[in-house]
Amino acid sequence: MNSTRNTASFSAFFPARPRGWQLALLLAIMLRPFCAALAQAVPTENAPAKRWAERATQHQLKIQAGDGRYALYKLHKIDNKGNTTKLVLETPDGTLSRLLAINGQPLAADQNRAESVRLQQLPQDTKGRAKHRRREQQDNEHASQLIQLIPGAFLWSYAPEQSLSGYPHKVVVLDFQPAPGFDAPMREAIIYRSLAGRVWIDAGSGCVVRLEARLFQDVNFGWGLLARIYKGGSVAVEQTDIGQQHWELNYFEMHVSGKALLFKSLNYNIQMKASDFELLPHAPKLAEGIQLLQQAAGSFSIK
Predict the structure, then answer these.
(1) Helices and strands (DSSP H and E) totals, the chain
(2) Between the CA of residue 246 and those of 43, 207, 260, what are the distances in Å?
(3) Rounded distance, CA 179 to CA 156, Å?
(4) Where are the chain's structural domains?
């Protein structure tokens, strides 16, 4: 679970924290959609391209801890181990999830019982929840520091095609590439020097609708002795307004490979799709959230 909703969505992809997880999680955190939540603060359409990035970054930092509203949704994830379908419920105390299916098949009776028992035991696992919150707080602090660097780390320009196929509203489309001479103030930020891509921003709200980025050269940490991420790695993310101007991540895809400590291979191929969003009428406490999740599990289709 997690006290900051946005970070939880990404760290849920790496629950076991294997060696090398930091590199993939870092790439995901840095590229997650950022949103300018206040329409009156959105730049004009003829503003310098960088203004859109600056304003979106400012507002993302303000809403980092969430906007006080929470959602229930279905999450389908495909990775190197197979695919799973989960039901996810956000609460002020953290993000809860319940497994619904493995490789497209509903859980067996004993697996369902195990999931129910696991959820019911969460309130008693105070040490585990505290450890997880500390870990997520550290991730969140790192993410905030990295997000602050985004506008100055890249050169921003308007893309030739200012549209997004299938999206019903007007978008502003920006291309970005590393800014020459960018001096990374923290080790993780050196990845910005090797990253380029495109971002689609909803012109009315200032929220990022889609972002694509690719590593065009290898990224070395500690001269490649600590870790190396190979060029060609890519990330694509999308988010959607689920109602009442509340935006949620609904698509995430990442392909990253490399090595850690010279010998340990890294290979992350992940695709995540979120659907069937329901905006909750109020912020549920942990016990209520567990009850809601258990009740909702029986009514969601695994397809």
Answers:
(1) 6, 13
(2) 20, 10, 38
(3) 9
(4) 5-297
